[in-house]
Amino acid sequence: MEQLAKDLFEIGAVKFGTFKLKSGIASPFYVDLRVAVSYPRVLRSIAALYLECLQDFSGAFDVICGVPYTALPFATAMAVQGDLPMVMCRKEVKDHGTRRVVEGAFTQGSRCLIIEDVVTSGSSILEVVGALRAEGLKVDHAIVLLDREQGGCEALLGQGIGLRSVFRISDLVGTLRNLNLLEPGKVDMILDFIRTARAASDVKRPETNVPSALPVAASSSSPVRDQLYSIAEKKRSILCVAADVQSTKELLGIADAVGPHICVLKLHADIIQDWTTDTSRRLRELADKHSFMLFEDRKFADIGNTVVAQFSAGVHRISSWADIVNAHAIPGPGLIEGLRHACAISGRMIGLLLVAQMSSKGNLIDERYTATCLRMAREAFPFCIGFIAQERLDPTGKLFVMAPGVQLDSKGDQLGQQYNSPQYLLKRKGVDFLIVGRGIYGSEEPAKAAQMYKELSWSVLHG
Ligand SMILES: O=c1ccn([C@@H]2O[C@H](COP(=O)(O)O)[C@@H](O)[C@H]2O)c(=O)[nH]1
């Protein structure tokens, strides 16, 4: 990606200065990827990066379609490089001949993945989606080379189209700054422009009836649950560290230090003061390096339509990097449906935990509420894979429990947190995974503390 960022800059596909846009607004950057067709090496790299993104959609589409005109050669290069069937959507329909809108081989119900070069408002993609759907093709996903981050992603999401981008403009600008191709002063100005433009974009989503992107298959297994158990088994760790720190540097530092000892890293992205897309990118790199999963402890608790946006949009774009998220059951099944929908169109496998019990003193959850959570979670399996709770809830163990409120050296804090020991929670309460926060990141040597909690909890369970 770094090389392509450099190439795009060098061939003038991305320019920085002052440019008057169609809307009359002065933009500090200008993107015109048409020039890439004159550089075969760049064209090949573009196709390769699209194809990399495409791996997440394997089996989820039958044909690809480039949005005319700039993305047409990109889609063609992908089709050739990746051996993929393609269709073409006409911009203008001829008044003679076959008058076909969609050219190429497809059948009613063929699943089509859209390829676009740049997205701003998402309107060009939606035009093509409309034409394809009218011809009987199913369209749920699009991949774009560059997202200008001006509301297009959210607008598409509102129409049931999940957008995956190779670059966001802020990533591209960050990469060029790291390569010393952009001065820091200019970078700040560009990022400011992006933020303002994003805030000004009129993002509207349908109030109800978000169309289902993928069929909700009744399944007896969950890939996210399977992955978690496979990591736990391999690393002999049922430990989740709660990294409740407030800067990217501390977060990445803790993740790297405790990484070898954990199966999950839990975070609250909204307490990280300097969160950017770079934070999630680097966090994912560490998750891959040490083989652990990322759990965003967002505790969604609103109506479905709102949680779709909280999950997929905003600064944190949780659905683009988290493996596990959690939610309160209080708003009802619409919340779970919204998250499941947003997860499906993100093209990523994400598991949901319901907060069925809490560790804090005086919390309002009672047995009836917890029992309702169990029923809702069963109905939502395999998207819902378990609970945040203090004891085993599903006797079959299919829906597992991650228990917070774990520390050896303390019984609680001044604000109502209550701690139990790993022995008590694992042996007496039958929980499956332990969440330890201050007991690890607040210790002098987090890596050593993590290793100790990991070994202790594993030996409690396995003798
Ligand atoms: O009932 C709950 C639900 C979530 N938490 C979260 O777990 C960690 C615990 O941190 P400690 O430092 O070990 O107290 C924290 O992120 C909470 O938000 C919880 O404690 N109880």
Automatic annotation (TrEMBL):
SUPFAM superfamilies found in the cross-reference section: PRTase-like, Ribulose-phoshate binding barrel
EC number: 2.4.2.10, 4.1.1.23
Domain of life: Eukaryota
GO CC annotations, alphabetized: chloroplast
GO molecular function: orotate phosphoribosyltransferase activity; orotidine-5'-phosphate decarboxylase activity
Record SMART domains: OMPdecase
Metabolic or biological pathway: Pyrimidine metabolism; UMP biosynthesis via de novo pathway; UMP from orotate: step 2/2; Pyrimidine metabolism; UMP biosynthesis via de novo pathway; UMP from orotate: step 1/2
Residues bound to substrate: D244, K266, S359, Q417, G437, R438
Sorted UniProt keywords: Decarboxylase, Glycosyltransferase, Lyase, Multifunctional enzyme, Pyrimidine biosynthesis, Transferase
Signal sequence range: none
Broad class of the protein's primary localization: plastid
Domain (Orotidine 5'-phosphate decarboxylase) ranges: 238-453
Annotated catalytic residues: D297, K299, D302
GO biological process: 'de novo' pyrimidine nucleobase biosynthetic process; 'de novo' UMP biosynthetic process
Compartments, as annotated in UniProt: Plastid, Chloroplast
InterPro entries documented for this protein: Aldolase_TIM, OMPdecase, OMPdecase_AS, OMPdeCOase_dom, OPRT, Or_phspho_trans_dom, PRTase-like, PRTase_dom
Family assignment from sequence similarity: In the C-terminal section; belongs to the OMP decarboxylase family.
Database matches in HAMAP family: PyrE
UniProt protein name: Uridine 5'-monophosphate synthase
Source organism: Cyanidioschyzon merolae (strain NIES-3377 / 10D)
